[in-house]
């Protein structure tokens, strides 16, 4: 009998996803969270933190390329970058592809995530942790961000969903206010906004809070992430003034050529098209921008989640 392990994640009430593990690589309980890394047939190696899939080696390039290259190529002169979270190193890897970048500070509360990523997911960080421009700070991003003022051209918030875990403090009004202080005048903040069709409240609450903190309407762009059930991922942006969707396709092409970087998903066309939102997604964003009280947004009712975790299967290979 060959034991078959399934890793389950609940996306929303009534919707679970399951990934079959072909090989368990590590299961540890750190000071802050439960971490498992395992191999799968279709998504490569997967890191799971607490009850959520965080990254896969098959699809991480989409997420990390869109997090990094969209704001960097729009801005045109990114030198100093702060990454909050991002312990797998994928965001740092993509940011450091740009020769204009002089310094990257990454803040993560859990040092073991970096250690595990070095050991089991080296293809994701790909040497980024050893780049001389890279600085790692271990600690709570919500506390460390308050130490900076007028320092960064770009802040990337690459944290897990705010569902009571270690990243809970990174999605508050006060934290976003400190991000504004840490940014330079023309700086940009980009954050992961989840899978918007399954968790619109997360995306909307962040857009609302960032709009208020920056005193300028925040917005989103979209990317196709098959790491996460739902097929699309929202990336939230905020600036002190204006928007980040004003470049023509021709200008994006010119900047991409000049940057001379290799990507697998990002292209000037993908960048340009990411800002063309469907009507329902535009409505979600407009509702959030106008909302002054996030409690008025459509948060799932308490108790709406399933109290159910399927047992591990014990099929034999002959049963498949």
Strand content: 25-35%
Under the CATH scheme, which class of the largest domain? Alpha Beta
CATH superfamily of the largest domain: Vaccinia Virus protein VP39
CATH architecture of the largest domain: 3-Layer(aba) Sandwich
Order of helices and strands: EEEEEEHEHEHHEHEHEHEEHHH
Summed over residues and divided by their number, the pLDDT gives a mean of 88
Number of helices in the DSSP assignment:
10
The SS-based structural class is alpha/beta
Low-confidence sequence ranges: 312-320
Domain count: the total is 2
Radius of gyration: 19 Å
Main beta-sheet strand count, sense and barrel state = 7 strands, mixed
Percent of residues in helices comes to 25-40%
And the CATH topology of the largest domain? Rossmann fold
Principal-axes geometry comes out as globular
Distance between the termini: 12 Å
Strand order in the largest sheet: 9-8-7-10-11-13-12
Number of strands: 13
Keywords: Polyamine biosynthesis, Spermidine biosynthesis, Transferase
Pathway: Amine and polyamine biosynthesis; spermidine biosynthesis; spermidine from putrescine: step 1/1
Family: Belongs to the spermidine/spermine synthase family.
Protein name: Polyamine aminopropyltransferase
Defining traits:
disordered C terminus; alpha/beta; Rossmann fold; globular; 10 helices; Spermidine Synthase, Chain: A, domain 2; 29% helix; four-stranded antiparallel β-sheet; 13 strands; 2 domains; 320 residues
Could you describe the 3D structure shown?
Helices cover 29% and strands 26% of the residues. The C terminus is likely disordered. The radius of gyration is 19 Å and the shape is globular. It has 2 domains: 54 residues, Spermidine Synthase, Chain: A, domain 2 (Roll), CATH 2.30.140.10; 237 residues, Vaccinia Virus protein VP39 (Rossmann fold), CATH 3.40.50.150. With 320 residues, it is an alpha/beta fold.
């Amino acid at each position: 009998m060959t034991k078959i392990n399934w890793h389950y994640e609940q996306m929303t009430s009534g919707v679970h996803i399951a990934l079959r593990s072909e090989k368990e690589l590590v299961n540890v309980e750190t000071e802050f969270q439960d971490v498992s890394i395992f191999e799968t047939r279709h998504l490569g190696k997967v890191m799971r933190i607490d009850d959520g899939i965080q990254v896969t080696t098959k699809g991480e390039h989409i997420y990390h390329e869109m997090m990094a290259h969209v704001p960097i190529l729009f801005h045109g002169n990114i030198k100093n970058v702060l990454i909050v979270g991002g312990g797998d190193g994928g965001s740092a890897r993509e940011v450091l592809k740009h020769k204009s970048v002089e310094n990257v500070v990454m803040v993560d509360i859990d040092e073991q995530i970096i250690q595990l990523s070095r050991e089991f997911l080296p293809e994701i960080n790909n040497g980024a942790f050893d780049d001389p421009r890279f600085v790692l700070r271990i600690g709570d991003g919500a506390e460390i961000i308050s130490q900076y003022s007028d320092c960064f051209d770009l802040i990337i918030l690459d944290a897990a969903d705010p569902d009571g875990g270690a990243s809970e403090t990174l999605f508050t009004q006060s934290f976003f206010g400190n991000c504004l202080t840490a940014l330079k005048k023309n700086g940009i903040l980009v954050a992961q906004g989840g899978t918007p069709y399954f968790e619109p409240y997360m995306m909307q609450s962040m857009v609302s809070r960032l709009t208020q903190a920056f005193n300028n309407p925040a917005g989103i762009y979209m990317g196709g992430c098959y790491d996460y059930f739902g097929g699309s991922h929202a990336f939230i942006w905020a600036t002190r003034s204006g928007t980040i969707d004003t470049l023509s396709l021709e200008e994006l092409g010119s900047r991409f050529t000049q940057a001379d970087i290799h990507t697998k998903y990002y292209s000037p066309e993908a960048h340009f098209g990411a800002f063309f939102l469907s009507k329902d997604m535009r409505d979600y964003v407009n509702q959030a921008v106008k909302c002054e009280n996030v409690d008025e947004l459509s948060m799932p009712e308490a108790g709406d989640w399933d109290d159910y975790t399927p047992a591990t299967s014990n099929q034999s290979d002959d049963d498949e």
